[in-house]
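Quick one, T. Sequence first:
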Amino acid sequence: MSSEMYMPFKSRAQRRKFAELLVQGKISPETFEEWNRETGAKKLPERVKRRSVRKRKRPVKQRRK
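Structure tokens:
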């Protein structure tokens, strides 16, 4: 295995996007094939939702009288 770090696809939309980049020649066939192999036949969601950001509770400011 090379020193590069490969990350499998997280969604079907991402897989389609990388296939499009492969056709355009913006990524190498080896990169696409490695990601595809790492992902395997997993059932991927169409899209991945962003994680919700927890808001910090702010202390209540006291009103001036």
